Amino acid sequence: MPRMSLDMVVLRLNEERLELLLETRDRPPFTHCWQLPALRIDETRDRDLDAARHRLLAEWGLGHCYSEQVCTLGNLERDPRGWSTTLVYLCLVEPRAEAVRGHWHPLSALSGLDLAFDHDQLIARGLERLRIKSRYSTLPLHLLGPEFTLSEVQRAFEIVLQTPMNTAAFRKRIHRADILVDTGRKRTGKQRPAILYRLENPCCVMFDQVMNGAEA
Name one Pfam family in it (predicted). Predict the structure, then answer.
């Protein structure tokens, strides 16, 4: 039977950079290479894809986080053991999220790593989904903690989209989306106190138009 697996591109935003969760393989093929969090779908344990997804998140200690299916890839070449199919998911976690397995790697350091199978393609697919969808939705907010300032929201979008935003226009768009709730608290520090917000809806909300960098 062809292998059917689930691979997850898990990202966090930490210290102004996107980081990816990987672990090293301890068995062939690709022994000692880095791989994404993954599991082989087990028909005796996984009632459906959601059950498999929750099992994978639980095995890695990631708990409740945002995730969505990106694509399905399958062919005879991706695994030297034979035909293999994988369902690729994108998962976004909080800035200080930790996992019970693996290590976090800055995206800028991935070119120096030996990746197993076709995981370079899977990562590219996940990042493509994140960046494209971030232009017309609230997706980057799931990279923030439970409470955040508007400046932190804008910075998350700028890091994901790799472009600066016009602050006034960006905030107008965020408020128009009507997805933030004022917690009644403020963050204090070197700057003036800033209002802390939380997400009203845990789902990803679409904007009324596509965001175009500094013009957003």
Answer: WHD_NrtR
What would the two tokens of residue 32 be?
């000692």
- Is the link from the previous residue into 29 a cis peptide, with omega within 30 of 0? yes
Residues 87-131: pLDDT tens digits? 999 999 999 899 999 999 999 999 999 999 999 999 999 999 999
DSSP type of residue 139: G
- Of 33, 12, 203, 216, nearest to 118 by C-alpha is 33
The closest of 154, 191, 156, 160 to 173, measured between CA atoms, is 154
Residue 82's region, left for phi above 0, alpha for psi from -120 to 50, else beta, is left
Q: Rounded distance, CA 171 to CA 151, Å?
A: 9
Task: State both tokens at 3.
Answer: 């292998």
Q: Where are the alpha helices (DSSP H) in the chain?
A: 49-59, 119-133, 150-161, 167-177
SS3 content of the chain, % helix, strand, coil (to 5): 30, 30, 40
d(CA 14, CA 130): 16
> Torsion angle of alpha carbons 186, 188, 193, 198, nearest 10°?
-30
Q: Check: pTM over 0.90? Answer yes or no.
A: yes
